[in-house]
Amino acid sequence: MASGKVQIAQVYRGTFLHSTQNAPLEILEDRILGVGTDGKISFIESAEKTDSLSETWGFQISDMQQLGSSEFFMPGLIDTHIHAAQYSFMGTALDLPLLQWLETYTFPEEYKFRNLDYSRNVYTKVVERTLSNGTTTACYFASIYTDSSLLLGEIAAKFGQRALVGKVCMDVNDSLEDYRETTEESQEETYRFITELLNRNYPLVKPIITPRFAPSCTSGLLRQLGEMAEDNDLHVQSHISETKDEMELVKTLFLEAQSYTDVYLNHGLLTSKTVMAHGCHLTDDELVIFRDTGASIAHCPNSNISLCSGMLDVRNVLKHNVKLGLGTDIAGGCSVSMLDAIRRTMETSKALKINNPEHECLCIDEVFRLATLGGSQALSLDKETGNFEVGKDFDALRIDPTASESPFDVFSDDDIKIILEKFLYLGDDRNIKEVFVAGRRVVPFGDPI
User: Fold this and answer.
1) 134 vs 74: CA distance, rounded Å
2) Any idea what DSSP says for residue 67?
3) Would the pTM of this model clear 0.85, i.e. be above it?
């Protein structure tokens, strides 16, 4: 091994599919990729260079793992918006619009998370389920309970998932008074959550400031959270312009604000490390503010349709150069799979085309990028993950299109582009042979860290 180089832990030969800033889909056939003991990609080169790479990096060619003829690696999927504390009722309770849905189903369910045994059961299942479906990075909402939220971080770290975990903040909730905090409690408990989670030094799990959304927080709390985010250089997540009823409510609560976006901007919560879910009804002027601040949008098409919230024009967001990733938003969304988010994103784009023939539909390559590199950019994690660039962590899915009980078939004249499209539209966890996060194989599940 050459002096100064990290030791190589794994070497793979085969096809690698990923996105770059300039290409929504780049197909790299017959490549050799090396992963260092630090979990990062050390090299990705043409397989013709195998001998020289072996000599330079000091690995044995006999140790190289060869992918099957139709197998490929793709980057791990990135869920930019998911409510871990709603997992238990995913796939049910979709008969009401957002505000009534929160009061009737969501708040009573999240109230249960004051119980740590209940929390452990649900959070273990959601982390296992997301990982097995290829979600290598998740941006989680937890509940208002600090110890329960710390438990979610512990479980994600144990299973090796990359995660941003947020203790929900809300000092306004008239529908279930027991499920809210005082302003002082929310500030103190959020600080305790941040401090304790950071002190645990999990390499892949970090805290994120999480006001539920503007109507559930007083101006004083929002301002304190903005200051906390700035003082500690933390990520921020919340919701914005999900429904028109919600937007009208915000107008009555924040009379001085020019827009919903203005509320977060005025309280220091719209930064380059902010991700806001939904944004279905944002104006072009608000998108300009998102672009100028570097804030991003988590597009959650399943939830947007399931709760009849609205349809985000992703093409318009991208034309405004606003960062955008995809989210499942369970339990407003009824699937934990990011493959479902890809499919629903395509469907929403086509529905907009039906309503407006001038609308420019998204293509599947673009949505593939949104679910991978786009998600890493939306979460300001693109220096660590999102594609197969040298120096980034090896967050990857090994896809086997011909796996036993695969939900789709592959034919002899299917090229790799067609096989990828079939997987994105038809595949599921049965095709996800292995999942890697920071170079560590986390699926199939073995002994947790």
Assistant:
1) 10
2) P
3) yes
For residue 423, report the phi and psi dihedrals to the nearest 5 degrees. Answer: -65, -45
CA distance 281 to 301: 13
Name residues whose C-beta falls within 8 Å of residue 116's C-beta, 6 or more positions apart in sequence. 147, 148, 151
Note every long-range contact of 216-219, with CB atoms under 8 Å and residues 24 or more positions apart, other chains counting: 216/170, 216/171, 216/172, 216/173, 216/180, 217/169, 217/170, 217/171, 217/172, 218/171, 218/172, 218/183, 219/254, 219/267
Decide: 271 and 232 in contact? Cβ < 8 Å.
no
Mean pLDDT of 75-95: 98
- Give backbone dihedrals phi and psi of 79, rounded to 5 degrees, phi first: -95, 110
Q: Is 324 exposed, middle or buried (0-12, 13-18, 19+ CB in 10 A)?
A: buried
φ, ψ at 91 (rounded to 5°): 90, 5
- Chain centroid offset of residue 153 CA: 15
Structure tokens, 57: 């990096």
Q: In the structure encoding, which two tokens stand for residue 272, read together?
A: 């380059």
Residue 401 tokens read as 């299109």
Cα(134)–Cα(137) distance, rounded to whole angstroms?
9
Which ranges in 203-333 belong to alpha helices (H)? 219-232, 244-253, 260-266, 284-293, 301-306, 314-319
Residue 243 to residues 102, 196, 319: CA-CA distances in angstroms?
A: 13, 35, 22
Q: What are phi and psi of 163, to 5 degrees?
A: -150, 145
Helix (H) or strand (E) holding 436: strand 432-437
Instruction: Please answer whether residues 81 and 275 qualify as being in contact, where contact means their C-beta atoms are separated by less than 8 angstroms.
Output: yes
Concatenating the DSSP letter of every residue in 339-354 gives HHHHHHHHHHHHHHHH
pLDDT in tens, 275-326: 999 999 999 999 999 999 999 999 999 999 999 999 999 999 999 999 999 9
The 10s digit of each residue's pLDDT in 118-133 is 999 999 999 999 999 9
- Enter the tokens of residue 222: 């929002």
At which residue do the structure tokens 């002994």 appear? 447
31-63 as b/e: b if 16+ CB within 10 A? bbbbbbeebbbbbbeeeeebeebbebbebeeee
Closest of 322, 445, 319, 427 to residue 368, by C-alpha: 427
Cβ-Cβ contacts under 8 Å for 174 (sequence gap 6 or more): none
- C-alpha to C-alpha distance for 195 and 360, rounded to whole angstroms: 46
Alpha helices in 170-218 (DSSP H): 183-199
Residue recorded with tokens 């009573």 = 108
